[in-house]
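Predict the holo structure. Ligand: iron/sulfur cluster.
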Amino acid sequence: MLSYKCPAECRHCMYACSPKWTGDWITVDQLEQFLPQLAKVIRPSPYGPQYMSLNHGLHFSGGEPFLNFELLLKAVEIAEALRIPSTFVETNCFWCKNDKLTRERLQALKEKGLKGVMISVNPFYAEYVPFERTDRCIRTSQEVFGANMMVYQLEYYRMFKRLGITGRLSIDQYLKLTLGESLSDTVELFLMGRATEKLKGLYPSHPSKRFFNTPCQPDFLRSWHNHFDNYGNFMPGYCGGISLGSWFELDRLVKKGIDLENRPVLKHLVSEDMKGLLDFALDMGYPELSEGYVSKCHLCLDIRKYLASSEDFEELKPIQFYEQLK
Ligand code: SF4
Ligand code: SF4
C-alpha cells in the first residue's frame, strides 16, 4: 500500500481509505531499502513470473496508487530490478479521463516492467468514478497487457453493462435498478473495515457469542496475500488496523517472531480468538453493542476501535485507520 489516500471513500473499503487521509506516501528510499527483504518471500503466479494472479506476486495498491503516478512508476522500476515476479497494480480508474492519458500511463508502467492491472468494479466505487472511465481502463489495459488484466469483480462489470450504466451510480440508484437484489448474494463481500459501519443496516445482526467459534475468513494468519503499508505495518491478510510488526524490519521479524508479550490484543486474538479478545476488552470497559454484530470482523473491529481510543497499542496501527472509521 503506497498510501491510504484515495479519491473515493467506498462504503466497503477494508482499509477505510479516503481523500481525508494525510498522504504520507511511502518514499523511494524506503522502497529501495526495504523491498529487497520482501522480494525474497514473494511467490510467482502458478502460470509463471510474467503472469498475474490475485494471491501471488506483488500488487501495488492503496488507497489509489495512480494519485502518485511518479511514485508508482518508480516502485515498479525498483520491483523489476529486484526481479519480483507477477507484479500488478490495482486501480479504481478515476484517472482514466481520456484515451491518450490512459494508454500513456499503462504503457509507461509496462515499459518499467509491470506485468498487469487489476480493475475494481463494484457498486461502492461506482458512487465516485464514472463507469466510462472503468470501461476505458479495461479496454486499454487489454490492449497493453493482454491476458494480464483482471476485473474485480467481473459479475458487477457484466451487471453494469447489462444495465447500461453511465456516469456515477449511487447505492440507492443501484438498489433501485437491481430491485433490491442483495449486494452480495453471489459476489464476494467481506463485512470488515468501513463496511461494518456503512453496510451493517443491510445485514442481520447477532450477539457476540455467535462468532466465538467462527474461523476468520480467510485465515487471519497466512503465508499468502498479506498487506504491507506505507507506515511499515505488516498487516495480516485483509485485517485493516492490525499490525504484526514492521515489514521495514522483515528479516528481524521473521527471525525473532512476533513480540506477543508487548502486543496483548494480538496475543488474545492468536491464542484465544474472539472470546479471548472480547474478555480482555470487557475488562477494559468495552461496552458490547446491544444491537449485535453483522460479522466476526464487525465484532473484532468494534473492540479494536474501543481499545485504540483508550490506549496506545503497538498492534493497532495505523491509528489514522481507526480515526477514519468515525
Ligand atoms: S477505491 Fe479502493 S482504496 Fe479507494 S476507497 Fe474504494 S475500496 Fe478503498
Ligand atoms: S475477525 Fe479480526 S482478525 Fe479475524 S479476519 Fe476479521 S478483522 Fe481479521
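The chain is about 40% helix and 5% strand. Residues 191-326 form one domain.
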